[in-house]
Amino acid sequence: MKKFYKEAAFGPAPGGFVVRLDGKPIKTMMQRVLLLPSPALAAEIANEWQAQEDKIVPASMPLMQLASTMLDKAEGPDRAAMNVELLRYGASDLVCYHATHPEKLVKLHEEHWQPLLGWLADAHGVALQKVAGIQYLNQPPESLEKLKTLIDGLGPEDFTVVQSATAVTGSLVIALALLDGYLDAEQAHAAACVDEAFQLEQWGEDEEARKRLTHIREELDNIMRFRDLLRAQA
Question: How many CB atoms sit inside 10 A of residue 168's CB?
Fold first, then answer.
């Protein structure tokens, strides 16, 4: 899309803050005004729009994309279905399925994933069982019920962080730990990419695999920035 405005700026509005293009508030794909709870987030989204050149490139505006998701999906009619999808991730979470060989990979899984299972049990009372190998295990119903309650109780802002991080990492547990600050972006990336990093170490560099790992890290950095800006008061 060709750039159609000269100036992007943010400012207060009833109920929060908006980003305006030549004075007109931005709207989401579902035509909702992009009303944001944080002036810091609104300011950075305005910067994303201001940085666009001759053409608008949505992929270069990750904060705008996350904010739109928050308003259109986390607060919209899709939320119930998205809750169900997140629970599916938790029911067969990446960090539960530990390798049985080789020994180095077994140790890496233990190092990165076992503390996350312990954290989830301690912080949220959700005990997920570790599995040796790839055979599917039905997690305890009481654990899944607690996980469901946790997901259902997430506000739109936190839900957006968790949903986005789960989609990037393939792990609801990693996403929840990122939200709570138990993991930072670097640690979350390491936990999510244990197998890929191990394969690169064993078999040498692979351009496509390396690009994927880099993309995951960039996405996690954007999600963490979004989380922090949401929580900023000024």
Answer: 22
